[in-house]
TrEMBL record, chain A:
Species this protein is from: Streptosporangium saharense
Name the record gives this protein: D-sedoheptulose 7-phosphate isomerase
GO molecular function, one term: isomerase activity
Domain spans labelled SIS: 68-236
Catalytic class of the enzyme: isomerase
UniProt xrefs under PROSITE patterns: SIS (PS51464)
Pfam family, one: SIS_2
CDD domains attached to this UniProt entry: SIS_GmhA (cd05006)
Keywords: Isomerase
GO biological process, one term: carbohydrate derivative metabolic process
EC number, as in UniProt: 5.3.1.28
Annotated InterPro entries: GmhA/DiaA, SIS_dom, SIS_dom_sf, SIS_GmhA/DiaA_subfam
Automatic annotation (TrEMBL), chain B:
Pfam families per the UniProt record, alphabetical: SIS_2 (PF13580)
PANTHER family per the UniProt record, alphabetical: SEDOHEPTULOSE 7-PHOSPHATE ISOMERASE / DNAA INITIATOR-ASSOCIATING FACTOR FOR REPLICATION INITIATION
Upper classification of the organism: Bacteria, Bacillati, Actinomycetota, Actinomycetes, Streptosporangiales
Assigned keywords, A-Z: Isomerase
GO biological process: carbohydrate derivative metabolic process
Transmembrane segments: none
Domain SIS: 38-198
Enzyme class, spelled out: isomerase
UniProt cross-references to Gene3D superfamilies, sorted A to Z: Glucose-6-phosphate isomerase like protein, domain 1 (3.40.50.10490)
Coiled coil: none
Name this polypeptide is given: D-sedoheptulose 7-phosphate isomerase
E.C. no: 5.3.1.28
């Protein structure tokens, strides 16, 4: 005589996905196994997301690199900005464009051209002064008003696309005739709706973490292609024409 | 370089990232062990102290904000500090004691043995990160390193309890893999918190 399944038995497939939910309170090995599986899943997620970004925006990233190379060759400076984790990305963008370095072997190798780039997030005196005296929404916009010139580049990163200070900064950059580049996530939020960003790259994900990981790739590739595009301007490897 | 050639470069650059990202799966066992060790330290009142040079300094700050201000509502804030923020301290130590001491000096005077030291170095050869990990180990901290390439002197020197390696020699690809690694570290530390029975019984409150 067969025994029917208990009606409230956990679904076997769910249990295999999340064994720690069903493990005893001291079942360390089950939790470790779930953590290992979760790590592998996240690796697969980011690979798929980067593939989607390339399919959607590969040609636009290449075209944007051309625009940036032309701007740098004409004397532009790049200003990068963002909040929280995106502030660290802004600093990474500035460090990458400014620093001496080498292209990877897989991309032809060779010395890179250091380019003038600044992060608007690094000066704690300016950031706290503007926040205290006026409000956080003017941080970045006021800095661009003070330092940005027509032809310079404003590059802002946000996962939501809705940061008020970024929206204000892109408006200010547009008024000043700057080239504007934006990185956003989800559906692009306000950065997409307002149409104030010349080149907007939206990472189509709802995970802040995966968005940041794909955005890092976008600005790394943008830098690498900008270096390649500069070659047509006759910039010798390792030269600093800024 | 014309548009067609640049698009081809873009495809090549994205393709260069696939294998190192998938190789994270091979690090999963070490990631899980590191998360468990970190969760135990946090549970015991330890703080996470993070450091790195150049572009890795931005990762140190990113890791600190990840733990202090979680992106997922409802996750508890955990104590984490980056040693890369205070320009007066960094330039002061560099001028007086030398650049290699910049993180080690701060650890000696700011950290306690219960804390965790996490160093980020794309090559595994940053002298200041290596020196800081050696110092942290002497002080009794849990030591962790995110490295790339062959792991360099940090792996060879055996100065970290947990070494997580990105399988690439391109520093930009290594950084991207590190971002995924520390996002996973943050998220999965909380898995252990949500199952407190798997943390060392003596520290369960």
């Amino acid at each position: 005589m067969s025994v029917p399944d208990a009606p409230d038995a956990p679904d076997a497939s769910v249990e295999s996905l999340y064994p720690f939910l069903y493990a005893g309170p001291t079942d360390l090995e089950a939790v470790l196994a779930a953590v290992r599986r979760s790590t592998a899943e996240k690796a697969e997620e980011i690979v798929a997301l980067r593939r989607e970004v390339l399919d959607r925006d590969g040609a636009r990233i290449a075209a944007c690199a051309r625009v940036l190379a032309d701007a740098f060759a004409s004397g532009a400076r790049l200003f990068a900005f963002g909040n929280g984790g995106s502030a660290t990305d802004a600093q990474d963008v500035a460090a990458l464009f400014l620093s001496p370095g080498f292209l990877p072997d897989g991309s032809g190798g060779g010395a890179t051209v250091p380019l003038p780039a600044f992060a608007l997030t690094g000066d704690v005196a300016v950031v706290t002064a503007l926040s205290n005296d006026v409000g956080f929404e003017v941080v970045f916009a006021r800095q661009l008003a003070a330092s940005g010139r027509a032809g310079d580049i404003a590059l802002g990163l946000s996962t939501s696309g809705n940061s008020r200070n970024l929206v204000a900064a892109f408006e200010e950059a547009g008024r000043r005739g700057m080239t504007t580049v934006g990185l956003a996530g989800y559906d692009g939020g306000q950065m997409a709706e307002l149409g104030t960003v010349d080149d907007l790259f939206v990472v189509p994900s709802s995970s802040v973490h995966r968005i940041q990981e794909a955005q890092t790739t976008v600005y790394h590739v943008l830098w690498e292609l900008t270096q390649h595009a500069l070659v047509r301007h006759g910039a010798p490897a390792g030269s600093d024409f800024s | 370089m014309d548009q067609t050639a640049l698009v081809a470069r873009a495809r090549e650059a994205f393709a260069r990232r696939v294998e190192p990202a998938l190789a994270l799966t091979e690090e999963a066992g070490r990631v899980a062990a590191a998360c468990h060790a970190m969760a135990e330290r946090f549970h015991d009142g330890g703080r996470l102290v993070v450091f790195g040079s150049g572009e890795a300094a931005t990762d140190a700050q990113h890791i600190a904000v990840e733990f202090v201000h979680p992106v997922i509502v409802g996750k508890r804030a955990l104590p984490a500090f980056s040693l890369t923020n205070d320009v007066a301290t960094i330039t002061g130590i560099t001028a007086v004691a030398g650049a290699e001491e910049v993180f080690a000096h701060q650890l000696r005077h700011l950290a306690t043995p219960r804390d965790m030291a996490l160093g980020v170095s794309a090559t595994g050869n940053c002298a200041d990160v290596l020196r800081a990990l050696e110092t942290a180990r002497e002080l009794g901290l849990l030591t962790l390193a995110l490295v790339g390439g062959d792991g360099g002197a940090i792996r060879a020197g055996g100065v970290a309890d947990h070494v997580l390696a990105a399988r690439s020699h391109d520093p930009r690809v290594v950084k991207e893999t590190h971002v995924t690694m520390y996002h996973v570290l943050w998220e999965l530390v909380h898995v252990f918190f949500e199952r407190p029975g798997v943390l060392t019984p003596k520290v369960v409150t």
